[in-house]
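Give me the fold.
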Amino acid sequence: MFADGSEAASRAMDVALLVAQAHEADLVAVAVVDTETLSMLLRQHILVRDEMVEFGAELEASAERQLRGFANQAKRQGVSLETALLKGNIHATILAEARRRKADLIVLAGFTSTMTRRDVLAKEKQYVMDEAPCPVLLVK
């Protein structure tokens, strides 16, 4: 389960928990701080280093809050959940983690095809779908 901070990610977690319960499976919720985009914004002089560091810390804190919320939700529902807060390129990091853990399924929050033209996160999710080593469940 990829925790991207969105409302759709909360719906995706609900579905991931149902799937985990039905199959008596363990669940991993992964959040990725997109350090690649932050570095690109610094190189393009859109951010200065202090802003990049501050924004990265804010993204990390937000991801930690969402992961804690998911962990509490899983505990209430009796599902084993491990959380992982990672840094790097979103799709490459998710795919590497899925391969490392030998994931049976990747759960992503939904997006639209028009979003992939302008939204970095939607593009990264599309790359995950294209390159995933296992089935991907997209939750609207």
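The CA atoms of residues 43 and 49 lie 10 Å apart.
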